[in-house]
Amino acid sequence: MKTLNLKSRKSIVRGAVAGVVMMFVFSAVSCKDKDKDEPKSSACDIISFIIADDVWDVNGTNITHTYPAGTQETSLSPTITLSPGATVNPASGAAQNFFTAEGITYTVTAEDGVTKKTYIAKATKTQSATCDIVSFTVNDATWEINGTEITHTYPAETQETSLSPTITLSPGATVNPASGAAQNFFTAEGVTYTVTAEDGVTKKTYTAKATKTQSAAIVISYIPPTGEGGVVEGRVIWNSITESNAAQYAVVAMLRSSWGSDYVKPYNNSYLNAIDATGKFSINITTGGQGDFDIVDVGFYFVLRATFDGIDGSSVNAGYMDGKYIGQSLTVNRSDFWANRPLSPEPNILPGLTDAGQRITLSCQSGGVILYTQDGSDPVTSASALTYNANTTLAVPSDRSLLIKAVTRVSETFSETVSLVWMPREPLTTPFWGLNVSLALNGESFGHTLSEEATRTRMAPVVPLTKWVRTFGTLNNGHPYINKIAKEQGLRTMIGVYVTNSSSDNNAQIQGLRQILATGPAPDLIAVGNECSLLGIAPETFVACIDAVRKAVQDAGFVIPIGSVDIANTSWSRAALERLDFIGVNIYCGTWDQTPENEMSNALIRTYNSQVAAFPSKFVLLTETGTPYSGGQYNVGNSSQTPSQQKAAKYLDEFLDWIVRDNIPAFYFEAYDEPVKSQNGGHSIEQYFGLMNGNLELHPFYREIVNNHSSNE
Q1: Is 574 exposed, middle or buried (0-12, 13-18, 19+ CB in 10 A)?
Q2: What gap in Å lies between CA 285 and CA 26, rounded to an integer?
Q3: Averaged pLDDT for residues 18-36
Q4: Residue 286, number of CB atoms within 10 A of its CB
Q5: pLDDT value of residue 292
Q6: Alpha carbon 405 to chain centroid, angstroms
Q7: What is the mean pLDDT of residues 394-415?
Q8: pLDDT in tens, 252-282
Q9: Cβ(298)–Cβ(253) under 8 Å?
Q10: DSSP E strands: which ranges in 238-294?
């Protein structure tokens, strides 16, 4: 091993150190030269601009973002990404309000400290298409907004007519007339407000109307002639009566005879005569007692029932009544009433089928005023009632019925309400105008649950046979679906609401109707009850069902004529008749009577025409007719009838000829045989009225007749 001397070793160390030093110096010089060769960046771009999860659009020096119309927040903190080495003012993360017309200016300075770029960041909101009046207040009164109707009721003594509303709108919307502008809302037309949305395009029109509470008044529509007893009918006109509080009130009647005695005439030991939710009442004033035949005046008083509880009616006299009644009392002279009795308005064309576009005019006695509605409501009390005049235009539409309810007002009395219905006359291109449809086939009970699919299957053969179908209820056996299915196939419908003396059953039927109305489309007619007179339905039950059905229809937003169906020559109660828009009549000449076989069709036509003549102000439809084809001989009175296929076929052929020839709105009974009727204790013939059997096939003895009438044009 070679050994270096100390001196040599020191020289080596010195050389190594010197080399390291020289390398360091060279490196430092090299870095300094490199800095001079690569100047600092002049890039000054905003690469991204993000607020929360929203990435804003950077387009040139414009930074934008659109928020939903309802955005409330205005202070936003952006996260800004820049070119490397660049800075920005205001700083990233600093909260700003970008929803100004000018927006926020951002200055970006490049790394070189010299180069700069200016950006404008601006937020906008989409323009709202909402154009609602959110609230409408006058002084401390908040008006009710129902759809586009704005209403409020003021006390009867209110004198002020110029009111200045404060109107709150959807954000960004405007209104004309302006909020705060004084208006007279106590007119029949009200004040129209047009609200324009923020987008400047979408608009909505509102009507604001004020009314005043009425001082309770009594009007009489009927009173027995002088010297005769009977039922007085009238109503209390007072908009404070509701369904829930009507039972608190009553009407007291006082009779004055020619010898000057005032007294209350009790009825069933009660002199407090109930009113219903519409204010209607009836009072039985009898004759036969001493002085009764001399009664000339009847005084009526609208009272709180509680005021008279425990009082003996026979002791009440006119002086005692002072201060006990609400609103105005009314005294009616029986002779004067009959001399000036208000008569119901008369149309230029009787109700029924007529040409689409046919103009309808109304007339009444001299000195009378006609009030009418077209929405099915009572023209005496309805807010939608209008006054008829020579300029009023009423025309029969082409796709639905025209329903007019009208009364004549003469002084303080009203005529009976008349319901007038016209339907457009259409060419009959099917064998039947209408068919009764019950789908309880092959032993199924009337309570059988039928699916929608099964209902469609059973309705399919019915569709090509008829323009109308009629049902008997709203529950089970496909009833919940028939209206919908028929409407889909272009048919018109009369939906039945079956009525019994059971309130629970009736309520269930009405609830079933509500479901049908909710499903839609709207039926064309609704029949409340079928042959109620034969079933012994109490008149008050029947009337209550009519009113409940009317309310269900109005609640659903529809205008549908409401009637009922019974046998020929039925005596309808006055209360029911006034409520019915149409009458359906069931006629079975030669089936349930002793009409000879060769006279059945002629008897049917005579009976139907007599029913039309008996109700000149009503649309009268033939809702059932037919005859069985089997079932064996059966007794009718002192005679007997024998069904046969030939007899049934002949009757059907003559029926189809008649309805085409005389343009008769008639339903034939029925589409299918109903074995369930005989199984439930009915006569054996009742299961043999159907055109088709349980296999959904036309009976062979009807086929040729139906085919011959398949096109009635």
Answers
A1: middle
A2: 134
A3: 44
A4: 14
A5: 56
A6: 17
A7: 92
A8: 888 777 666 566 655 544 678 889 888 989 8
A9: yes
A10: 249-257, 262-264, 273-274, 280-285
Residue 34 CA to residue 100 CA, distance in Å, equals 48
* CA-closest candidate to residue 117, choices 94, 145, 86, 93: 86
Of the candidate ranges 3-12, 132-141, 336-345, 695-704, the one whose mean pLDDT is the lowest: 3-12
∠416-331-218 over CA atoms, to 5°?
50
Strands 75-76 and 46-51: unpaired
Q: Which residue has the tokens 């007749």?
A: 705
Residue-wise over 449-464: b if at least 16 C-beta within 10 A, else e?
A: ebeeebbbebbebbee
Transcribe 431-462 into DSSP letters. SEEEEE-----TT--TT----HHHHHHHHTTT
DSSP state of 619: E
Percentage of the chain with pLDDT > 90? 62
- Report the pLDDT averaged over residues 465-485: 96
| Model pLDDT, residue 39 | 86
In residues, how long is the chain?
713
Give the mean model confidence (pLDDT) for residues 313-320.
60
Token pair 């005032």 in the structure block, residue: 262
Q: Is the pLDDT of residue 9 over 50?
A: no
DSSP alpha helices (H): ranges in 471-531? 479-488, 503-519
Residue 317: both structure tokens together: 């006299």
The answer to whether 541 and 503 are in contact (CB under 8 A) is yes
C-alpha to C-alpha distance for 251 and 271, rounded to whole angstroms:
8
Look up the pTM and report it. 0.68
The rounded distance, in Å, linking the Cα atoms of 171 and 49 is: 28
> Which pair of tokens denotes residue 321?
């009544």
User: Which has the closest alpha carbon to 404: 147, 658, 617?
Assistant: 617
Cα angle at 687 between 682 and 692, to 5 degrees?
165
For the chain, helix, strand, coil in percent to 5 are: 25, 30, 45
Residue 354 phi, psi dihedral angles, 5° rounding: -155, 175
Q: Give the residue among 374, 370, 381, 380 at the shortest CA–CA distance from 345.
A: 370
φ, ψ at 343 (rounded to 5°): -105, 140
| H or E element at residue 294 | none
The count of other CB atoms within 10 Å of the CB of residue 438 is 25
Three-class DSSP category at 464 = helix
